[in-house]
Amino acid sequence: MTRTTTIALAATLALAGLHGAAGAAEAQTAPKQKVVYHVNGDDPKQQAAALGNIQNHINAVGKDNIDLKVVMHGDGLSLLLYPDALAKTKMKAANATEEMQSKITGIKQQGVQFQVCGNTLKGRSVDPKDLYDVDAKDIVPSGVAQLGLLQSQGYAYIKP
Asked: Which residue range is the domain that position 11 belongs to?
C-alpha cells in the first residue's frame, strides 16, 4: 500500500467515525416522535400485526422518545371488545382475547394511549364496560375527527 493510499484510507475511516458519532448525537437530541396508529378493521391477525408494529416502533426509538396513540373506530373497536359481549352489540367481531389483552397491557405500560370513538360506541351499541381496559378518558367524540386533530398537532399517521 502506498503512503498516499494509506493516508486516504485513514482519512476515510476518520470521516466515517465522525459521521457515526454525529449520527448518534443527532439521534439523542432528536425531538420526541409523535405518532398515531389508526385501527378500523376487525381482522384479528391484522390487529395483532398492528400491535407488533407498535411494539417494534417503541423498541426502535425507546418509550421515552415517543408519544404514541392508537385511535380506533368502526370495526376497529373489536380489538378491545370482550368476546362474551359480542351478542349485545352491532359489532361483527370481538377480539379482546387473553392474548390480545396481554399485548395491549404491555403496550399501555410503555405510555401508549388507546382512544375509542364515541360515535362507534353509540352507533354499534357498545357499552364501554364491555371493552378491555377502557374508561371515560379514553373515549373521544369521533375517531376520524381525532385522527385529523392529532395530525394537525404534528402526529405522524400510520395505518398498519
From this structure: 1-30
